[in-house]
Amino acid sequence: MNKIKAAIIGATGYAGQELFRILYSHPYTEVVKVNSVSYTGENYSDIYKNLNGLTELKLTNDEIEKLADEVDVIFLALPHGIASKNVNKNILNKCKIIDLGADFRLKDKNIYEKWYKVEHFGEDVLKEAVYGLCEIHSDEIKKARLVANPGCYTTCSILSLYPLVKGNLINTDTIVIDAKSGVTGAGRKPDITTSYCECNESIKAYKIASHRHTPEIEQELSIAANKNINLIFTPHLTPMNRGILATCYAKLNCECDYEKLKEAYLKYYKDKKFIRILNKGVFPETKNVKSSEYIDIGFTIDKRTGSVIVIGAIDNLFKGASGQAVQNMNLMFGFEEDTAINLPPLYAV
Amino acid sequence: MNKIKAAIIGATGYAGQELFRILYSHPYTEVVKVNSVSYTGENYSDIYKNLNGLTELKLTNDEIEKLADEVDVIFLALPHGIASKNVNKNILNKCKIIDLGADFRLKDKNIYEKWYKVEHFGEDVLKEAVYGLCEIHSDEIKKARLVANPGCYTTCSILSLYPLVKGNLINTDTIVIDAKSGVTGAGRKPDITTSYCECNESIKAYKIASHRHTPEIEQELSIAANKNINLIFTPHLTPMNRGILATCYAKLNCECDYEKLKEAYLKYYKDKKFIRILNKGVFPETKNVKSSEYIDIGFTIDKRTGSVIVIGAIDNLFKGASGQAVQNMNLMFGFEEDTAINLPPLYAV
Amino acid sequence: MNKIKAAIIGATGYAGQELFRILYSHPYTEVVKVNSVSYTGENYSDIYKNLNGLTELKLTNDEIEKLADEVDVIFLALPHGIASKNVNKNILNKCKIIDLGADFRLKDKNIYEKWYKVEHFGEDVLKEAVYGLCEIHSDEIKKARLVANPGCYTTCSILSLYPLVKGNLINTDTIVIDAKSGVTGAGRKPDITTSYCECNESIKAYKIASHRHTPEIEQELSIAANKNINLIFTPHLTPMNRGILATCYAKLNCECDYEKLKEAYLKYYKDKKFIRILNKGVFPETKNVKSSEYIDIGFTIDKRTGSVIVIGAIDNLFKGASGQAVQNMNLMFGFEEDTAINLPPLYAV
Amino acid sequence: MNKIKAAIIGATGYAGQELFRILYSHPYTEVVKVNSVSYTGENYSDIYKNLNGLTELKLTNDEIEKLADEVDVIFLALPHGIASKNVNKNILNKCKIIDLGADFRLKDKNIYEKWYKVEHFGEDVLKEAVYGLCEIHSDEIKKARLVANPGCYTTCSILSLYPLVKGNLINTDTIVIDAKSGVTGAGRKPDITTSYCECNESIKAYKIASHRHTPEIEQELSIAANKNINLIFTPHLTPMNRGILATCYAKLNCECDYEKLKEAYLKYYKDKKFIRILNKGVFPETKNVKSSEYIDIGFTIDKRTGSVIVIGAIDNLFKGASGQAVQNMNLMFGFEEDTAINLPPLYAV
Which CATH class name applies to D4-150+318-332? Predict the structure, then answer.
């Protein structure tokens, strides 16, 4: 098979690098362009020295229009507000776009503008954007030209709660998601708040009641519930490089036992290779999914309070960003869904 | 002033060592005995090499009865189930006891036995035990012969929620406490689950819906509410040595604004030196209270869900164990409450 | 191609698991047996939950003789002293052995017994054992039935110094190797010295002037130098999961400049895919080789002291153990040398 | 006793904060001014939230001339090149100066300018500056008006080797110092190289054969040896907040045994409270001196190579910077040398 050609815009962020690394082992894809505003002209392997000897690519600063003529797929790994200005129908006529940023995730432009505090310039292409949560929207993804790759917290949160919401098993007015992320989630940049000695040996919540992944989780769970959901989402910065753990709480709607809930999970997930529903009494740890496409989900019923506690774990850079981007690409191009991402999680790394 | 004499039973655990270290700088107290079953006969400073040159004490295995004749106060830092067997009226007639373990925290022997799965042998002395949460029970503590030093999670959780519960500002059926602890909370012992490579770079929840600090939190908040409370408490193991962050959620009972809640906190805490209510928009990080007696508390209202989110942070070994034990001792012996624990938190340590 | 069959004895150590994980993606090998004395009868994926859903293998405790009948290659990942008792000519007639332990690394039984303080029972097979440092001994490895996979520290140390010693560029009486290792190097076991809170946020040297990798480094460098070498080797325990950094010092033999030394490195390593000689002024960091077969080497001349400083970095579990074991297997079975280990290092993991 | 007044210039660096924290508990000193160019006008406790409620000081940007009129002692915690421009005789006539930076450490202006690549403007005051290594120069320090507080690496390195050099027990042409530091050593600033995910889980050497602490170590050891010494010093960045471990190597000059070397250490250090010579076979770990003024020193003889290996450990921010600054102040003002720094090291923090 001829390899398709790919470009990564925003290649020097952690997600960009992880994407390059995964695609390096992809049998049907070749990354031919790596773009970076900050490091234009430098060798990619001088910025990411793990890639020393593995690539001769130099970082460029090409226009997306130009790249669209040269490649089959463009990955955008950019801060919000840039993609909506630059992606247009003309580009989508020429190549597929997978946006790892936030600009095309929220279907309602007004909600986007409210939470992100910037104008959305891409309303016309927003309409055709598909929310790239592969385990839920694979049919649309296969036909999409523009996929909005989900956020890291949202991937973990939605997948953890989806069967319970879809199955109407929980009271959606009582959902609390307490999520913990490694520091790669904050991106790669010089910033005192993510400096080693400020993050190390400490944990904190941040953007309490105001994190931008909140409306994204609400959007997808509202669709599943077929009604509007507001929920509490609290992210925490955890002293580790990678991983997201989402501890989710809700009052049960029913006199459900464990088996009933398990049934719901299996109903929606039984054929989903990368979702592992853990055995009763076993709960996720972020180390068990590190550098992999897997999400581990465990849950229990707390009879004393009539609640369910669901815990999900992913690697924020892999399933929560670049791995899922490749999974989306595989679906969009008709490759096997698990191509290049069918790897066991690493242990003690 | 003559120094009082103190003994530490269970001196080789992390709380025992921290207690010794704090008391080392206490002007009115001298630790004269350090007990340890596992290391009897060894130099204390060979086990804790930070104490090299600072103490000549050898670890002993004396009976508590014998120690009661020799010292003014005995600190117990033992696994549950031992103290209830060994503390009796006769001992309390001779010296004061501060128990850092769980045996005298729960006023109801049946609840203790249900959660701890062992028989409680000290029912007679249990009746006179005072729950040593200094900011709430200082009057009783001053008169007590036996103080049950609160658990680490419970100290942080109760103090974070107490004013809201006492002031009837939240719906107590909706309380969720999602707590994160450093690994010292698991104690000092050879155990694969707390080995470096198994804990490092990962986070997990544990003892979900079943942790033994749950009934302790419920007991104290129920007293405050004057009604029975059941709540959800989920502890998490976080890759850091020290610190507890408790992220607490509840639906509001009222149309309260931030100022109304702040008022409640100030009402109960305004004279409490070691409680710091953070400014609006500022939230705790465990690093800011490290190696100190302080608890930092911050909160916000989430109007979208009609909820309050309160976050508390302590050092689990200091305010959550040994520092509070010294605070209790200070109250019991009539020393200034902050003697030897009036230290600024360490930064970047 | 039919897959060869492999067994791993000692599969529940970190090296054993890493080996299983690498072989999981090997196109020509299938692991059919995983042995463990401690966990016999349990599901492998219950011990290593990252493998959940990826293998149905149960841990067995088969005799090596029996396994030799069933598989093409046996990997031993055992404490020293066991392999020498169990590997014999009869077994080698039936299958190939790759020993990740120490028993067949030292050619001189007496040196082994002196450093390891146990008797060596496998003198006859020791004679045919090949030291499996792939970049130096590939010709012998290809023909070997029994390969002694090098130690982690030794792999990094020898490869860092080999060209300088072989080229007679340094005074071999002045070699100092100051090495730093992540905690996985200490193995997976409950032990207070490797518990999280004892290792975290601290660094120490250990086995000073007495570590067992010393004679192994000396053996290989002595062969290269064609004379007996004694050197100083000091290992340090570093608070991280993985990685070895070896900082090596020696007085120069000559008025060499940087280019002269570089020439020596290129002479011996220019075709070695997994050795990366860094550009002038660039030095290794363990993060750049994580979870990979690469060794990064950088060096500089210190004119003020007439010395060279060479620094090497590897992943101790990958190139320093399991990855190199697979590289050895590839050579022994005629597969491409880089099969299944041709992966870019992971970043920020 | 009336308290002396102190000012800290550069109060928002890690050393500045640590100094403020130590002086907070000093019975005879009050910090009345905290200066910071970057944060002028802000509350000190808004930058360092651990100090919340403990100080009302605002950060100022006063001229040192002005401060000299207001206080008894000024601590400078500034990047190199600033102090030499600003400290003059007039200021020294008015108050004492303790400079935590590098400008007055090297007695030879030319060596300073060669290594630091900036002009030295304070040659006249340089002459009267005393090198503030308290255990070696206490007599001069007591009389000094200007003390150059030693560097962190240098404190650890010099104290580790001083008795061997002074006693002519080692070949000073063969000294190698391989030092490992926590990340606080790099200061507090937004910088990609000290961001969490770039430092975490990795170790590297840096400024190889070129670190500016080299001439400082050489200066002091040369004085001790009464001859010029050139040595190798290699710093490493270690993934932990605090601590320096210096592993030092040298060929022995003599047929010395362990006892002979121990005698040398005791000769020079037996009355030095903060130097702990460990028992034979025991070696330092940085955790054992954390947040303390202690240096732990252990050593062994390697007969095979005729060498001694000495290992020293300190807390880089405490003994290596701010604690030693207070020790210097205590000596300069006639306080007990250990005032406010006589604290046991913290454990598992």
Answer: alpha beta
